[in-house]
Design a protein that fits this description.
Blueprint: H1 2-10, H2 12-77, H3 80-87, H4 91-97, H5 100-106, E1 110-114, E2 120-127, E3 132-133, H6 135-146, H7 150-153, E4 159-166, E5 169-177, E6 190-196, H8 199-206, E7 210-213, E8 222-226, E9 229-237, E10 243-252, H9 254-306, H10 320-345, H11 355-378, H12 385-396, H13 402-445, E11 458-461, H14 462-473, E12 480-484, E13 491-494, H15 496-516, E14 521-531, E15 534-541, H16 570-580, E16 584-588, E17 596-604, H17 610-616
Parallel strand pairs: 12-14
Antiparallel strand pairs: 1-2, 1-6, 2-3, 4-5, 5-6, 7-10, 8-9, 9-10, 11-13, 13-17, 14-15, 15-17, 16-17
Amino acid sequence: MRRLRGLASASLGGKLVLILTGVGLVGSIAITLLLAAIITPSFNRLEDNAVTAHVERTRAALDEFASKVETAVRDYGDWNASYAYMANPTRAFEEESFSTLAMQNLSVNGMAYVRNDGSVVIARWLDLASGNDTPAMKVALLDRIGQVDLAQVVDGEGSGSFYLRFGDSIAAVGVARVRRSDGTGAPRGFVLMARTISSEQLSTLLQVEARVRLDSDLAAVAITPRDGRLDIAVPIHGPGGETVASAGYAVPRDMTLLGQRVLLLAAIGTTLLMLVVLIVLRKVIGRLVLRPLKRVERHMGVVRQSGTLGLLQENPRHDEIGSLVTSFNSMLRQLKDLREQLEVQSFKLGRSESAVAVMHNVRNALNPISTIMSQGMGGAGAADPAMVERALSELAREDIPAARRQKLVAFLAAAQESVAGERAERERQLKLGREALHNVLEIIGKQQEAAHERPQLETCDISDIVAQNATIARYSSECSIAFSFPSMPHWVMGNRVILSQVVGNLLGNAVEAISATGRDSGSIAVSVTEQDEQVRVVIRDDGDGFDPEDAPTLFQRGFSTRKHKSGGLGLHWCANSMVAMEGKLDLISEGKGRGARAVLTLKAATGMRKDDAELAA
């Protein structure tokens, strides 16, 4: 657990994993609770409906069982023979209507004729299976008949039914008034039939395994939940509505089990879906966030190891990562500019052998200052002073309308803002000039420092050096120069400051060569090739060029093709500097007016891995 916490505290990916895991757990629990709140009550209602249907079906079966007995006894009640028998009981009627065969055909266990005063004319209880009389049950029948008000049981149609307990048995009892067949005549008594109902008969009626319970303390339907089933007990009512027994059976809790399975499957499915979503989110976050951040970290490592402030190349993105890369590259540009200023300020002239070479470098450094000052002096004023003075004089008058006064105030505010902008621009140009002059003073002051010291070689990106000096060279002339140079990094072994001065001198010479043609525009193309552990840099211009036979004399001290110059050891110093860095410099031209090529040959930096170089770029 501590190791996991340590990983989470040190890694953003670990924190995201923990956060996503927590969100997934909370989401799964919340969804499970929501599903439980929806599914469980629904299936509980279905189960309640099913239980209600079972109870209603039980009551209907019991009522139907009793109504059949009532139907049979009504036939005996509305019968002329029964009406005559109650007035004059005869042996013949008893042998015919109370015979074993007659009771078996009616499927009744007990029969009795009762007068209106409650006296019993005849009663019999028969065991239908064996066909024998059961005296004990007959006694129980006579006893229970005396306890029931038969006149209250029968309804307006002259018959009724109810359940009674006879010893250990429960029987459905049907009662009917004894009348003529057409329903006329004063009732002479009651005829009663009883049919016992067993657990087997109840099971057949309900189509479930049921049994008749002799409990009489059940006031209402009782439902007892069990594991996987429900125990249901439905009361069986007697003639006064009291409970004489109950019908008990068990039904499986299919709806509850189904609801539990549905809830379980829904919870598992939701959890799996949440897990898939979290995995996809982790992959997406890793691809869109963590991987770009890792590339930034790797690039920072390459910058730290190589010391080259190359920009991080990323596909354009309009999100926070893209903003981070843009800010990171802006920081690298600022650091690169600051380091270049620091390198120029601490530049060591090294192998320079005379003051003329120093002055040549100073002249190259002063050219941008001249251009900046010329641009500053040639700029037009921000606002016409006469217009400003006229606006002030009008504004001082009291009879000027308010609309005119507002326009004058807006004009003066715009003029003031323009003057402020011009002043800020001039201050910026003066600051650039001051920095350039500071560089000149540094070059002059440090000319003799370490004159005999061999420059220390390091890994340099020649493409980056060319790009920086091409930007500076644009200020060296009034001509419009089109530059083209490689964008991919090419790593060489050299002294970065000296190599930058050499490239700057060569680009400055190329700009002067283009200006010497009298044209207002030109082009300078730089190409870099790598072969046999060497890097070959070719700087090609479309300037005035030189005669091929003059190539050896170009490197002589003080020689220059410019008629307005005296001396000039720039190329001499450049050639010596290249030799000091274990390289060489060649100048090639096909003749006057056909341009020239400066070829720099340097050692390739073999210690820089290709993937690191691409990442640093």
